[in-house]
Amino acid sequence: MSEGKQHQEIVKADPQYRRRILTAYLIGIAVLFVFFRYAFPQMISAFRRLDLHTSFIIGEIISIVFLLLFIFPSLYLINVGNNIRKHGQVPYSGMKVLRDTKIRTGKRAAFQANVLVWLGHTAIVLAIAGSIAMHFLFAEVWHSPILRNLPLF
Predict the structure, then answer these.
(1) Rounded to two decimals, what is the model's pTM?
(2) For the residues 61-66, what does the mean pLDDT come to?
(3) Most buried one in 4, 7, 73, 150, CB count within 10 A?
């Protein structure tokens, strides 16, 4: 190695952690497949049998809950960004990685930490704003004259 280049530390991948992540990913795909193959069609047919008012309420609740679920990954991003700031390096001390990763420090690590925290906060704001917008969208449809003219009311 030449004198001008600094020695780059590398965090080694944890094979057991990689296997656990892959197993969880495959189990997740299998669960989603079973859900969409068997449970989802039954839920849709049950949903179609409901009266209009109830189906609107359930549809609104499902839409808003789905949007609000994005808050949890956002909190994880904020946590990772704060840990990077605290330790001053990416990956931070104790962070497990899926592949061998060079440690970044200084301005690059600070920039990555700031991006993760900013992205997490932005996703939270968008999830909340989207939920509020979804509520007003459902209210607009519910109070529309076209829907009121249906013989169901």
Answers:
(1) 0.79
(2) 94
(3) 73
